[in-house]
């Protein structure tokens, strides 16, 4: 039996359990049917973020950004590129700190963009400032335990 990994649906925030060997098979949310790990960057709200960071076994990298922040906008394509490169073994999502100002305070973020990597209910890595796609990918590969 393959290990079941918890993954919060970034669309409806239901917690799904996906067998590790099915991660690459395009798993969908049992509640709303959204694809769980299609390599696309999704925008989160604070409630979904709170649930995902608490539950998810699959590495979750969050980009804390805002529309007024030039370096944030510059990094956005690199972040999407890294999400594609990492494939189904990790998920990348973003949260708009202008729409949700409380999250910056909650996570003690002083400057954006800021990247925080979560896995298994804890923060495993934090990166301040914009970095290119290969560096984003390496951050996840080096700091998280990627599923098999
Ligand atoms: Zn869902």
Automatic annotation (TrEMBL):
UniProt xrefs under Gene3D superfamilies: Glutaredoxin, Zn-finger domain of Sec23/24
- Which superkingdom is the protein from? Bacteria
Pfam families cross-referenced by the UniProt entry: Thioredoxin, Zn_ribbon_Thio2
Domain named Thioredoxin is located at 23-145
Query: What keywords are annotated for this sequence in UniProt?
Result: Disulfide bond, Electron transport, Metal-binding, Redox-active center, Transport
Report the family membership. Belongs to the thioredoxin family.
Instruction: Name it.
Output: Thioredoxin
């Amino acid at each position: 039996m393959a290990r079941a990994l918890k993954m919060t649906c970034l669309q409806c925030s239901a917690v799904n359990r996906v067998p590790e060997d099915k991660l690459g098979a395009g798993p969908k949310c049992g509640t709303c049917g959204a694809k769980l790990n299609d390599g696309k960057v999704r925008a989160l709200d604070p409630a979904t973020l709170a649930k995902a960071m608490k539950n998810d076994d699959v590495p979750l990298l969050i980009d804390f950004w805002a529309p007024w922040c030039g370096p944030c906008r510059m990094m956005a394509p690199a972040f999407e590129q890294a999400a594609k490169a990492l494939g189904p073994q990790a998920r990348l999502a973003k949260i708009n700190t202008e729409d949700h100002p409380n999250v910056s305070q909650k996570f003690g973020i002083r400057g954006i963009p800021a990247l925080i990597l979560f896995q298994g209910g804890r923060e495993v890595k934090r990166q301040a400032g914009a970095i290119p796609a290969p560096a984003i990918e390496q951050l996840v590969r080096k700091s998280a335990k990627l599923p098999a």
